[in-house]
Amino acid sequence: MGSLKKTLVLKIDPDNPDGKLIRYAAGVLRAGGLVAFPTETVYGLGANLLDEEAIDRLYKVKARPRNKPFTVHIAALGQMKALGCALDGRAKKLAGKFWPGPLTMVIKAKGGGSVGFRLPANKVAIELIKAAGVPVVAPSANLSGANPPTDAGEVLKDLDGKIDVVIDSGPTDVGVESTVVDLTAEGFGVLREGAVKKEEIEKILSDE
User: What is the second-level CATH architecture of the domain 8-206?
Assistant: First the structure.
């Protein structure tokens, strides 16, 4: 996926996604391309986690600091196992309440380190991730530090000609980024408060 002249815009119905267009966008992801797509929170910029060149390009396109990791977006819990991760009791409680939805959970990975996961509540996002068949990282589809986009037009303002595809499924439902909760130590820590409030997380984890 070399230099681009213009980003391809695919209009996809959010309620009844066109399988052919979804498969096309998924193929671009697998091949190392960058694909912006809607979630229920904001538009994400997807890349294949297993493709080093795609991840390198994602950092460059977003002008994102290299020490800032990306969240893996999944379509089913089983996808976490392939990356050496599993939900503990706390994470299972939160997943039962907030997944699919606007919560990112950072959990320990086997062999050290940690990985952030989110299972989005957006039909287009889920179908795209399923069709891609690879782990998909998807930070917000904007330049680092800018406001996250809530429609395809906002994505194109920053990234037209810099990414391969944007899926236009209209405005997002929530319009606020996901909440990021750190579950790598005892208790929990909120790294970013977004659509899910800290008090909601506390309530779920305190209920026995």
Answer: Alpha-Beta Complex (3.90)
Q: At which residue do the structure tokens 């069709």 appear? A: 131
Could you state, in order of their start, the residue ranges of all structural domains in the chain? 8-206
The torsion angle over the Cα atoms of residues 16, 11, 43 and 118, rounded to 10 degrees, is 30
pTM of the shown model: 0.95
Digit-coded pLDDT (tens) for 28-54: 999 999 999 999 999 999 999 999 999
CA distance 46 to 58: 8
Neighbour-count burial for 85-120, b at 16+ CB within 10 Å, e otherwise: bebeebbebbbebbbbbbbbbbbbeeeeeebbbbbb
- Quick one: 48 exposed, middle or buried, by C-beta within 10 A (0-12, 13-18, 19+)? buried
